[in-house]
Amino acid sequence: MITRRTFLSHSCSLGVAASTVGTTLLSLGAARNAAAQSAGDYRALVCILLAGGNDSYNMLVPSDASQYGAYAGIRADLALPQADLLPLSLSNTGTRSFGLHPGMSSLQQLVNTGDAAMVANVGTLLEAFDPVAVENGTARLPVGLFSHADQINQWQTAIADGRTSKGWGGRIGDLLQSSNLANGVSMNISLAGTNVFQSGDDAVGYAIESTGNGAANINGYGDAAGFGEYRTRVWDELLAVQQSQVFRREFRKRLRDAIDTEGVFSEAMSQAPALNTTFSPGPFSTALNQIARVISVRDLLGATRQTFFITVGGWDHHDEVLDNQAGMLPAIANGLAEFRNALVELGAFDNVTTFTISDFGRTLTSNGRGSDHGWGGHHIAMGGAVNGGQLYGDYPILAANAPLDVGRGIYAPTTPTEAYFAELALWFGVSPGDLDVVLPNVRTFYSPESGTPPLGLLTG
Amino acid sequence: MSAMRHTLTRSLRQTLTLCAVTLLAACGGGGGGDAPPTTTPPAPITQAEIEAASRLAAQATFGMPFEALEPMARQGTEGWIVSQFNQPPTYHRPVILDIVQRRDAGEFDAFEQDIEYLIFSRRLSWWHNTVTANDQLRQRVAFALSQIFVVSDNVDTLQVYPFALGTYYDLMLENAFGNFRDLLRDVALSPAMGLYLSHLNNNRSDPANNIFPDENFAREVMQLFSIGLFELEPDGTVITDINGDPVPAYDNDDIREFAKVFTGLSFGGDNAFFGNEIAPRFDIPMEMFEANHEPGEKQLLNGAVIPAGLTGEQDIELAIDNLFNHPNVGPFIGRQLIQRLVTSNPSPEYVQRVGSTFADNGFGVRGDMRAVIRAVLLDPEARDPSLAPNGGKLREPVVRYESILRQFGATSDDGFIAALGYFIQELTRQHPLSAPSVFNFYLPDHSPAGEISDQGLVAPEFQITDANSVVNYPNFVDAILFGDFVTDAPPGFDAVRLTLEPWEALADDPAALVARLETLVTYGSMDAETRAIIEAAVAEVQDPGIRTRAALYWVLTVPATAVRD
Fold first, then answer.
1. Which residue from A217, A242, A294, B354 has the highest number of Cβ atoms inside 10 Å of its Cβ?
2. What is the average pLDDT value for chain B, to the nearest integer?
3. Do B338 and B422 share a structural domain?
4. pTM summary value
């Protein structure tokens, strides 16, 4: 069947070509203090948003006899067969055992070889969960709990008691960007267009595509001769006009910045070495491939700190959890393994930590082949700095009427997102003193001065 | 009974409106009460009036060609709106049916490996209809509604059954000038929506097996399609409690109660049965199967209770009433209609005027869409930019592209304007009924970091304006004007071309060419400096054909056009 993508590949290209770099652009880069810093101290965070609320109780499943029995009883027609679960060798779970969804053998290998860890029951909280307070209505709960709009936002903003459009990745960018201007390219690079996670006061995500060298420019811009000279000159004049209307000002700025950044970015990407690692053809692997390529030219960009953001959509499985996850989870596992291999090839696996986020986990109970919006969910962290082969956080004891159950098998989180994010931010280079700038509510759950890490997930 | 009242009220209102127009015409005739009609030549239309008509066209249509502006100006805003209300609607089902029948007869066999032309049919219908239809206001309002009542072809089943999205969009068209309650109810019973938000084949609870009704539609029908997340003042301001926290309009328990209501529905038609997945009927509303409908009482909002013992259909009607009558609906839906048509940041007073018209159209009717549309477009803030200090809207890519096709004479050999929309979708992140999620292409409250959010403003369309898409659009225009691409017409359909001869006729006077383009596209709102640069750039090009296209290129892509007032 011709999909949209195959149709596009058969049609004439619109000729969106990267321009050659004009001298003006290079000098612009120089003017922004593009001196490459020491190549040794590079760190990157790769944030993968599973948009819609991944049913992670079917991604990470209790496999010991008594807990599996509880799982199967509660999940009814959603329960995965015990024999299908992929065993995890976790060094810190005592007598409890866990398995992964049968489609995630690549992730099983990553965890069992210590390249990845699982983080259990993470979710948005304003205070530690108190079932009595929830019951009698006095608990402080995240705004818009169980709603996509607010929860997907709060995982990106780390502000569960408000609605803002600025994310903790953006705030990290605001803090670190001036000491890390990668030739004028934002340190926050998005494979998902505009996103909240990477939006800060000054820092914004630089959106690239998974195809080609990632950045597009105006046709003809930067070409020295003929039509290109005309185009470049007129666009420069038009974009120099100071607009009096604020939207027009912002639009002008976006277009100007896109043109300026493309030259620098494309020049660097054109020198990305060919990788031996092969990636699967799907969009998730393709995006990770592009990220690996950007990381491969970090020295050319002069980048010492970068965040990357990918969105994988379609996890809101109110219907057909089993069929949908069977089709979708393998791509996640395989993409992560491919990315790991590429990073090892680049000698950067220790410098890059990849982690998942999602709106929420889902109801343990079924609605008839589907599940509804939940709260706490389980996540994946991968990287050379990750203390792999372990399960962090507290995987709940599943039971009918468990104390964490707020109804329909929705379990309250036992690890706040603050702890998860603080671990990542501190590793990335945010100083303890700046932690509550990046995560405004962190002190409810963690004292940056404590000297001990929030979870112990990462070394260094 | 209430339906009949709506009909009576609507026809009464139409009569009153027609009388008003007749009276005005009579008074304007220049004569006294019994004098014979005099033939006074009509007053010349001023440039300002042409610009005002062009502005209205930008708000209320997918673009009007230059020659249509003077007649619009003569009608006046209100007169034009009324004439648009009276236009026969242009629906998709006939067009889709025609394409499907042609496909079934083998016309596209040479080009199709599988079911491509079934998938293409609703896209082909959408583009052709919206480019050629005369009921432009209805088309534009339906497009706005489709961005609130979102269903999307990112669910494969909705792609492969051509009448799924085609019939759904016809609901938007049909109800655009009707009553909002009918729209809400039709959406709730739409099989396309049932599939998209999974209340199709949503079964009653089975507590013994720990299975409960699917909450998806129940949540979104409140959050997105009627009342929103939080309690609202009549002017759309979020109501906060003593701690300054917004007051939720509903909670998870409410969702579970409404989820019970939306149980028991499946595809309708002959041989219908609950649980049907293999013989879908997307062309008719879903049917209720009592045996699969949750029995018992359901607690609705604001203390309303559906008593036990009613039929599923009765339960749904009462639930729809409960949502429809919530005071939030006017400001919640009204503000979004303003955002889609007029401006991203209406004043609270503007929202209140529209919201209160929703509550009561002046004749005691709630939810009168015509009254609401009039309120949106006739509001002083909509008609006079000087009254809207935070006025402005980044134009939607689909509307910009449509406007190119409509304003520059898109035509083909057989008159069918064939386009699939894949390029505009891929490059600019927007295509009708192709949103990435039920949250549309952008959120109503998206506030770009920087100056816009510093000023406390929102700008939804900036959410899809990233470093790639911002550059892709000028390149898209480039391909249309200088490449051999106007639309992505599939094989078997005539290529679409523009009609630029009328513009080429102005090419030897760059100032006149640019002035007319500016009137058509930016209606006097382009800044003088940009205009001067464009004029000089156009004059630089010698060849008249290329000069014309260069003029279009610049006018259609500069910041002063991307953002309209």
1. B354
2. 92
3. no
4. 0.89
